[in-house]
Structure to design on (834 residues):
C-alpha cells in the first residue's frame, strides 16, 4: 500500500477509463452524473452489499461515488482504486456509466481525507455524504468532511444511545448543516399511512378530540419512537392541539396510538406488516424493513432543507432531553 | 375542526388521494380491461389509492359483484405489463369492486346505481365523491350524462366529475352539441376530456424542458427555429378495429386530438403559473392561433394516404382495404400529413409538419425541432452537406431528448462531423414511469384538470381540422398510395420538398 494518494492521479485514471470505454464498440458509453456521493464505511462493513446498494442507486441518482473505507488503527496510510459502474438499459445498445473511486484510509490518515476529497468532487453539483460509520461521527475529523458536503446522511438507529444521537444531530442542524437521519426516513411509510387516515373528512373531524399520543417501542426503535412522538406532537400543535406525548419502552417493535374519548387511531408493526386501526376498523399493509437502497433513494431525492424533519428533530431533542430513562 | 390534514408532508409523501368511487360505464369493454383496471390496480399496488376507494362497473351483461371481480382479476393478470398480481393487494382492491348491470337507456339502471353508491358511501366512507368514467361508444356519452342527471346523481355530498374518452365529437358542431348536453348535468369544470398523450411522462417533460430551463426558451421562436416535425407513427394496422377506424381515419383519430395537443405543448407561450387554468389557457390560445386552411391550401399543405398490402420481413400483410370489416373501396385515410402555420409573433412563417399513420416503418412518436443552420459554413463537413442543429424530443418508445450538433473530427484539419448528445429518460431515471392512465386517473380523482382538454381547446382543434375534413371528403383519392412498412406516400415527401425540407426517418 502506498502511503498517500494524489487526486490528480485519480482524475487522470478516470479520464483514461472514459477514453478506454469510448474505444470499445461503436455504441459508446453515456456518462451520467447528478451529484458526488461520498460514502464512508468501515472495512468490516459488508462490501458486497454496499456495492450493490450503490450500484442500484446509480440509475436513479447517477453520481461520482467516492467510497472511503476506514481500516482503523495502523500507520498513516491512504490507498485508492478507480473504476466504473456501468449498466446497459434493457433493449439499448449504449451503456451508461458512473465513476467510482475507492479510498482506503487508516485512522491516522483521516485528517488527510478532506484534501483528497475536495478536488475529486464534481464541480457545480451537490455533494452528499452518507456516513455509515457511527464511530467516525464522534471523531473530530468528521466535521471537516461534513463541512464539504451539501447534505449529510447518517443513521442514528445504529447509535448506542438514541437520545444522545438525536441531540448531536439537532446540534448539527442548529449550526446550519443539512442533515438527514435514516431512522427518520424509515418512518415515511408510517407517517404517510397516518396522514392517509386523516384524509377522510369524517376522521379528520375527530382530530380535535385527540388528547393523548403514546409511542411504545422495542429494542432498536428508540430514535424512531422519539421522532414519531415529536412529529405527531408538532402536527397536532399546528392545528391548536397541545398534547405532550408519552414515549415508553413497552413493546416489541413500534406502536403509535392517538386517542381522544372514544376516538382511537393506532399504527403498529407486526412482523412485516403495518396494522392500522381506526376505532374498530383495522387495515393491514405490507411493511417490509426498508433496505439501505430504498432509504438512500428517498434521501438522495431531497437535496435541500426538510422543514418537517428539522422541526421534528428539534422537538424530539427537547422531549428526549427532558425525559427519564426509557420514557417521558 | 381542522380544515387541513396536519400530518401531510409534501416533500416526502406522494400526493394524497381523496376517498371516492369510480363508476365505469362500459366495464366489460376493451379499454376497461386493457387500460383502466390495470392502471387502477397499479395505483392500489403503489398505495396511491385511499383505503375506501371503490369501483362500480356498469355494463349490460348480468354479473354478480364476485363474477365482476373475477373478470377484472383476469384483466389485471393479462394486461398489467410490469406489475405482478399480489394476492394481498388484490384482495384489498377487489373488496372495493362492485357491479351494476343494465341498459344505459333504462332509467332504472341509474336508480340502482344510486342505491349502490349510497351503500358504498356508508360502508366505505367515500364522502360522496364520485368520478363517472365513460368508456363507451361516443354516441352514448350524452344519454349517460342525461341518465345520471335525471337520477339526481350529478350532484351529491361530495364532488361529482365526468371523464369522457375521445373522440369528442366528429366535427366542430357535434363537439359543441355534445358539450352542451353534458353541461346540462355537469359544469365544464367537472368535465374531464381525456387525451392519454398528455398523460405521458415525456409530453409533461416538454413543459419542464421548456420552462424549467433558461437556455432553450430564448431559441424557441421563428428567429432560430427553421421548422418542426411532429410524428405519431404506428407500425401496426387497424388490428380488428377496421369498422371503427373506417369512420374515423388518421386525421380525426390522431391529429385532431393527440398531435395537436402535443403541438400546442411545444409551441404555447409560458404560462403565468403551473395552475391548470393558466396552462390550459396557453394551450388553447396556441390552438386558436393555428391558421385554418382554405380548400386550395388544403391541397398544398396536406396529404392523405392509405396503406396497401406489402411483405414486411418476409410476412405478407394486408392492405387497409383487405382488413376485416373494411369497405374494399374505402376512402378512409390511414395516413395524414399536414403543414400547419401558427399566426403569432413567435411562430409566424415556421412550418409545423405533423404526420401520423398506420403500418408505417416503425412505431415512434417524437417531435423534431430543426434550427437554422449557421449563416456561414467555414468548415468541411464529413457528410458533405450542410448539417443543422436538431433537437429531438422522443415520446415513445425510449423517451428522451437528443441534441444533434457538429463537432470537430479528431485529427489534423478542421473537418466537422454531426454528433448526438442523448438524454434517455428511462436510463437517466431508472424509476418506473407511471402509465398515462395512472397519471390521468389520479389527476381526475384529485381534481387537477391540467392534462385534460377543455371545451375551447377541443373546439379550436376541430376548427383547424374541419376544413381539411371537408376538402378530403369531397376528394376522390387514388388509394392505396403507400406500401405497408414504408414511411408513407410520396406526396408527403414532396410537400416538404417544396420548402426545401425532408422528413426525418426516426
Amino acid at each position: 500500500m502506498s502511503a498517500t494518494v494524489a487526486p490528480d492521479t485519480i482524475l487522470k485514471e478516470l479520464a483514461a477509463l472514459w477514453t478506454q470505454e469510448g474505444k470499445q464498440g461503436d455504441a459508446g458509453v453515456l456518462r451520467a452524473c447528478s451529484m458526488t456521493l461520498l460514502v464512508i464505511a468501515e472495512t468490516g462493513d459488508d462490501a458486497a452489499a454496499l456495492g450493490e446498494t450503490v450500484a442500484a442507486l446509480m440509475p436513479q441518482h447517477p453520481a461520482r461515488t467516492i467510497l472511503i473505507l476506514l481500516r482503523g488503527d495502523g500507520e498513516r496510510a491512504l490507498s485508492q482504486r478507480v473504476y466504473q459502474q456501468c449498466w446497459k438499459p434493457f433493449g439499448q445498445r449504449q451503456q451508461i456509466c458512473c465513476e467510482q473511486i475507492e479510498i482506503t484510509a487508516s485512522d491516522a490518515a483521516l485528517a488527510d481525507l478532506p484534501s483528497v476529497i475536495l478536488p475529486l468532487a464534481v464541480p457545480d453539483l451537490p455533494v452528499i455524504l452518507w456516513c455509515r460509520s457511527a464511530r467516525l461521527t464522534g471523531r473530530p475529523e468528521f466535521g471537516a468532511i461534513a463541512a464539504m458536503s451539501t447534505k449529510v446522511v447518517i443513521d442514528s438507529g445504529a447509535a448506542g444511545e438514541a437520545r444522545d444521537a438525536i441531540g448531536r444531530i439537532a446540534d448539527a442542524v442548529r449550526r446550519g448543516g443539512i442533515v438527514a437521519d435514516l431512522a427518520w426516513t424509515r418512518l415515511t411509510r408510517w407517517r404517510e399511512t397516518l396522514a392517509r387516515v386523516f384524509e377522510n373528512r369524517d376522521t379528520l373531524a375527530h382530530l380535535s378530540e385527540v388528547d393523548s399520543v403514546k409511542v411504545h417501542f422495542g429494542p432498536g426503535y428508540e430514535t424512531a419512537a422519539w421522532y414519531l412522538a415529536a412529529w405527531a406532537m408538532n402536527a397536532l400543535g399546528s392545528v391548536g392541539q397541545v398534547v405532550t406525548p408519552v414515549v415508553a419502552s413497552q413493546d416489541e417493535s413500534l406502536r403509535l396510538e392517538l386517542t381522544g374519548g372514544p376516538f382511537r387511531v393506532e399504527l403498529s408493526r407486526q412482523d412485516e406488516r403495518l396494522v392500522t386501526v381506526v376505532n374498530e376498523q383495522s387495515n393491514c399493509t405490507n411493511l417490509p424493513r426498508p433496505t439501505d437502497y430504498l432509504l438512500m433513494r428517498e434521501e438522495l431525492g431531497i437535496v435541500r432543507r426538510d422543514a418537517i424533519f428539522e422541526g421534528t428533530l428539534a422537538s424530539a431533542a427537547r422531549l428526549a432531553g427532558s425525559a427519564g430513562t426509557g420514557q417521558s | 375542526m381542522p380544515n387541513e390534514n396536519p400530518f401531510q408532508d409534501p416533500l416526502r409523501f406522494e400526493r394524497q388521494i381523496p376517498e371516492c368511487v369510480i363508476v365505469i360505464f362500459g366495464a366489460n369493454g376493451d379499454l376497461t380491461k386493457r387500460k383502466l383496471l390495470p392502471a387502477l390496480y397499479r395505483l392500489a399496488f403503489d398505495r396511491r389509492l385511499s383505503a375506501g376507494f371503490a369501483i362500480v362497473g356498469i355494463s349490460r351483461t348480468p354479473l354478480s359483484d364476485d363474477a365482476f371481480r373475477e373478470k377484472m382479476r383476469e384483466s389485471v393478470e393479462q394486461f398489467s405489463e410490469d406489475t405482478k398480481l399480489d394476492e394481498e393487494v388484490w384482495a384489498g382492491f377487489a373488496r372495493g369492486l362492485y357491479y351494476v348491470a343494465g341498459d344505459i337507456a333504462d332509467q332504472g339502471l341509474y336508480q340502482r346505481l344510486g342505491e349502490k353508491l349510497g351503500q358504498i358511501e356508508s360502508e366505505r366512507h367515500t364522502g360522496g365523491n364520485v368520478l363517472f368514467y365513460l368508456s363507451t361508444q361516443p354516441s352514448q356519452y350524452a344519454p349517460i350524462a342525461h341518465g345520471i342527471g335525471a337520477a339526481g346523481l350529478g350532484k351529491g355530498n361530495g364532488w361529482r366529475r365526468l371523464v369522457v374518452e375521445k373522440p369528442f365529437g366528429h366535427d366542430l358542431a357535434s363537439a359543441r352539441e355534445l358539450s352542451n348536453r353534458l353541461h346540462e348535468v355537469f359544469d365544464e369544470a367537472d368535465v374531464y376530456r381525456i387525451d392519454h398523450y398528455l398523460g405521458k411522462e415525456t409530453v409533461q417533460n416538454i413543459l419542464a424542458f421548456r420552462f424549467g430551463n433558461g437556455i432553450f426558451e430564448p431559441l424557441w421562436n421563428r428567429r432560430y427555429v427553421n421548422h418542426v416535425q411532429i410524428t405519431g407513427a404506428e407500425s401496426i394496422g387497424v388490428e380488428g378495429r377496421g369498422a371503427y377506424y373506417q369512420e374515423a381515419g388518421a386525421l380525426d383519430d390522431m391529429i385532431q386530438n393527440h398531435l395537436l395537443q402535443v403541438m400546442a405543448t411545444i409551441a404555447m407561450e409560458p404560462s403565468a403559473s403551473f395552475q391548470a387554468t393558466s396552462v390550459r389557457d396557453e394551450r388553447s390560445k396556441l390552438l386558436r392561433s393555428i391558421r385554418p386552411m382554405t380548400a386550395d391550401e388544403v391541397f398544398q399543405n396536406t396529404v392523405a394516404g392509405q396503406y396497401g398490402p406489402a411483405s414486411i420481413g418476409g410476412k405478407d400483410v394486408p392492405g387497409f382495404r383487405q382488413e376485416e370489416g373494411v369497405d374494399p373501396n374505402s376512402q378512409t385515410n390511414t395516413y395524414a400529413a399536414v403543414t400547419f402555420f401558427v399566426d403569432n409573433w413567435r411562430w409566424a412563417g415556421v412550418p409545423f409538419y405533423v404526420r401520423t399513420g398506420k403500418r408505417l416503418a416503425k412505431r415512434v412518436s417524437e417531435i423534431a425541432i430543426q434550427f437554422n443552420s449557421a449563416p456561414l459554413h467555414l468548415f468541411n463537413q464529413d457528410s458533405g452537406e450542410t448539417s443543422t442543429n436538431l433537437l429531438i424530443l422522443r415520446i415513445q418508445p425510449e423517451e428522451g431528448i437528443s441534441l444533434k450538433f457538429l463537432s470537430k473530427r479528431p485529427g489534423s484539419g478542421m473537418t466537422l462531423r454531426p454528433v448526438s448528445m442523448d438524454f434517455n429518460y428511462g436510463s437517466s431515471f431508472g424509476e418506473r414511469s407511471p402509465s398515462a392512465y395512472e397519471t390521468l386517473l389520479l389527476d381526475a380523482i384529485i381534481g387537477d384538470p391540467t392534462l385534460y382538454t377543455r371545451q375551447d381547446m377541443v373546439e379550436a382543434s376541430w376548427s383547424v381540422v374541419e376544413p381539411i375534413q371537408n376538402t378530403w371528403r369531397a376528394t376522390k383519392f387514388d388509394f392505396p398510395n403507400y406500401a405497408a412498412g414504408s414511411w408513407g406516400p410520396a406526396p408527403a415527401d414532396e410537400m416538404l420538398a417544396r420548402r426545401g425540407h425532408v422528413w426525418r426517418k426516426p
